[in-house]
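Design a sequence for this backbone.
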C-alpha cells in the first residue's frame, strides 16, 4: 500500500506549490481550502488541503507523516520511502578528518581475517604505510596512480615494494565503510589476490569520506620487494 500510495502522490504533486495560509494565489491561480475528508488505509487523517482548478493538493510533508516516509530539504526536496518521517535529513558519518581511526582499524582486522581464512599470515601494521595510504586517499583518486602511490610510500619512510587496493563508493548513514571496502576487494579477483598474497608482510590503510563518497586504500608492503621509484 505504502509504495503505491507514494508513487501516486508523487505523480499528483509534481510541480505543485506548497501553501501556508487559508487561501493563496500562485501565478494568478487561486487556491482555496478543500474540506473533503482524507483517508489512509481506511483511517481518516488530518491534512491541510487546497483546491486548485478542481484538484486537491496537500503538503508532501503531511503525507510523509501520515503514510510513514521521510521528507526533508537538502539541496531540494528529498523523499526517503524507506525511512520513517522526521522532517530532518538523516545523520551522515562524520566527514573526513584525520581521525577515522576505528574505521581504519576495522579494515585491517577484516583484511587479516580474509588472510587467515585463506591460510596466509596476518599483515603487521606499518606506520609508514598507514601514512602513505592516508596521503593517497586525500588526493581523491578514483583509479590507481601507481607512481604517486609508490612515491608516497617513499616519502613516508617505506622504501620496499608495495601492492595496493583502491575502492570508491557512495555511502549513507547505514553503510559500514570498512565492511563495504573489504567486501569489494574480496569479490574482485585482482584485489582479492593482493589481499591474500603471501609475499606481503605489512599493511597500511587510508579512508576519506567526502560529499557522500568513501575513498578507501589498502597498501600491502613487501619487505623483500623493491620500490621501482626508489
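Sequence:
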Amino acid at each position: 500500500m505504502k509504495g503505491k500510495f507514494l508513487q501516486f502522490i508523487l505523480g499528483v504533486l509534481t510541480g505543485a506549490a506548497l501553501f501556508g495560509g487559508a487561501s493563496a494565489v500562485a501565478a494568478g491561480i487561486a487556491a482555496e481550502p478543500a474540506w473533503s475528508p482524507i483517508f489512509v488505509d481506511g483511517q481518516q487523517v488530518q491534512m491541510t488541503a487546497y483546491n486548485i482548478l478542481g484538484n486537491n493538493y496537500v503538503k508532501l510533508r503531511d503525507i510523509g507523516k501520515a503514510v510513514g516516509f521521510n521528507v526533508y530539504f537538502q539541496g531540494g526536496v528529498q523523499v526517503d520511502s524507506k525511512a520513517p518521517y522526521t522532517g530532518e535529513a538523516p545523520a551522515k558519518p562524520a566527514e573526513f578528518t584525520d581521525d577515522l581511526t576505528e574505521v581504519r582499524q576495522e579494515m585491517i582486522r577484516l583484511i587479516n581475517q580474509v588472510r587467515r581464512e585463506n591460510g596466509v599470515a596476518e599483515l603487521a601494521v606499518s606506520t609508514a604505510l598507514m601514512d602513505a595510504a592516508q596521503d593517497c586517499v586525500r588526493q581523491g583518486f578514483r583509479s590507481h596512480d601507481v607512481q604517486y602511490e609508490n612515491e608516497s610510500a617513499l616519502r613516508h619512510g617505506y622504501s620496499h615494494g608495495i601492492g595496493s587496493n583502491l575502492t570508491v563508493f557512495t555511502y549513507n548513514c547505514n553503510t559500514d565503510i570498512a565492511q563495504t571496502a573489504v567486501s569489494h576487494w574480496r569479490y574482485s579477483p585482482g584485489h582479492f589476490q593482493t589481499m591474500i598474497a603471501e609475499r606481503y608482510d605489512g599493511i597500511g590503510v587510508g579512508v576519506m569520506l567526502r560529499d557522500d563518497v568513501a575513498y578507501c586504500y589498502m597498501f600491502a608492503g613487501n619487505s623483500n620487494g623493491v620500490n621501482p621509484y626508489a
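The chain is about 35% helix and 25% strand.
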